[in-house]
Design goal:
The structure is a homohexamer.
Chain A (H helix, E strand, L loop, with lengths): L15 H19 L3 H11 L3 H21 L5
InterPro entries (chains A, B, C, D, E, F): Hexamer_Tyr-coord_heme_pr_HTHP, HTHP_sf
Protein name (chains A, B, C, D, E, F): Hexameric tyrosine-coordinated heme protein
Pfam family, one (chains A, B, C, D, E, F): HTHP
Chain lengths: 77, 77, 77, 77, 77, 77
Amino acid sequence: MEQKEIWLESLIVKTPQEGFELAIKLSRMGVKYTQPDIEVLKKLRTDYANNASSLTAASHVVALNFQTVSKANNYWK
Amino acid sequence: MEQKEIWLESLIVKTPQEGFELAIKLSRMGVKYTQPDIEVLKKLRTDYANNASSLTAASHVVALNFQTVSKANNYWK
Amino acid sequence: MEQKEIWLESLIVKTPQEGFELAIKLSRMGVKYTQPDIEVLKKLRTDYANNASSLTAASHVVALNFQTVSKANNYWK
Amino acid sequence: MEQKEIWLESLIVKTPQEGFELAIKLSRMGVKYTQPDIEVLKKLRTDYANNASSLTAASHVVALNFQTVSKANNYWK
Amino acid sequence: MEQKEIWLESLIVKTPQEGFELAIKLSRMGVKYTQPDIEVLKKLRTDYANNASSLTAASHVVALNFQTVSKANNYWK
Amino acid sequence: MEQKEIWLESLIVKTPQEGFELAIKLSRMGVKYTQPDIEVLKKLRTDYANNASSLTAASHVVALNFQTVSKANNYWK
C-alpha cells in the first residue's frame, strides 16, 4: 500500500485553484493505489472520458477531496 | 492537471445564490479537468440532460460543492 | 450558469422542517440548472418517482443539502 | 414542496439510538417528498427490501442523516 | 421504525478500531431497519459478499459512519 | 464483527501521504469485514482493478476516509 515516492508533501496550497488541482491529484492517486499499471489506466481512460456518468463520478470524488483541501487551507480566507 | 487560465479566484461570494452557482461551476470544472474537449462534452450533454439518474447525480455533486462554498462563507450569516 | 430570478435569499429558516424543505428545494435546483426545460423535467419525473433507486438517490441529495442547512442554522438549538 | 403536517419538530433527541431512528425517518421523508403516494411506495418497497444494493443505498442515506443528527446532539456527550 | 431492543447505548468507544467496528454495526443496522427479516438478509449476503461493487458500497457506508464515530470520540486524541 | 488482531492503533500519522495510505487501509478494511475470505477478494480484484467505475468508486471511499484522517491530524498544519 505504500509508495516509495513522495507525492504528497502538504495539503497547504496558495490559491483555491491550486487547491482544486490538488483535489484532482488526490482523486487520481486514489485510483492509482488500486491500479498502479499506467498502461491499464490509459486504456480505461478512453472509455471513461467519453461517458457522462463516469465524468460525473470523477467530479464527485474531486468535490470530496476539495472539501478536505479547502478546510485544510481555511478556505483561503 | 494544471490549467493556465485562472478560473477560481476565491470561494467567497456575496449571496447564497451566487454560492450555489459557484458550486455548479466547481462541479463542471471537475468534469472538464477529466475531459477538456468541449465538443465531446457538448455531445454527452444531450443524453445527460435527458436522463433522470444523471440529473440527480449532477445535483449530488453540486450539493457537495455547495457544502464547501457555504462553509467558506460562514453560511452568509 | 446564472439565473436572473432570485430563488435563494438565505439559508436561515425558522424550523428544522422548513430547513428540510429548503434542502429539497436546493436538490431540485441542482437538477434545474442542468436541465432548465420544465417540460423535459415533468416527463422524466413520471419514471423517476416510480423507481426505488431514483427515490433513494433523491433522498441522498436531500440529506447532503440538509447537512448544509442544518449547520447554517446551528441545528435550531 | 411544503407539507401541512408538522413531522419534524426538533433534531434534538435523548439517546444515540433515538438519533439513529430520527435519521431513518429523515431518509424516508426525503423519499416521501418526491413520491407522496403511499400505495406506490408500498409497492416499490417489496422489491426494494429484497435487493442488496437498494438496502446498502438506504443505509447510506441513513448514515448521512445520522451525521447531521449526531452533530446536532453533540454526539450525546 | 423503532426497535424495542437497545442496540446503541453510546457513540463513545475506547479505541479507533472499536470505533471502526461500531461504524460497521451502524451500517448494518441501517440495512436491518429496512429489512428486518434475518433470513432474507442471509440469502442476500451470499451474492453481496461476492460482488466487488457491493463490497465497495458497503465500505462506503462504513466510511461515513466512521466519520461520525471518530468525530464523537475526538479522533481518540 | 470484531477482529482479534489489532490493525488500527491510531488515526494519527506523521505526514499527509501516510494519512492517505491509512485512508486506503481503512477503505480496504471496510471491505474485509464484509468479506473476510482472502481468496474471494483476490479473485474479485482482477475484474475490479480493470474497471473504470470500480476504480472511481474505490477512490471515492478513500476520499471519505482521507477526510477523517486529515481532520484527526488537524491537516498536518
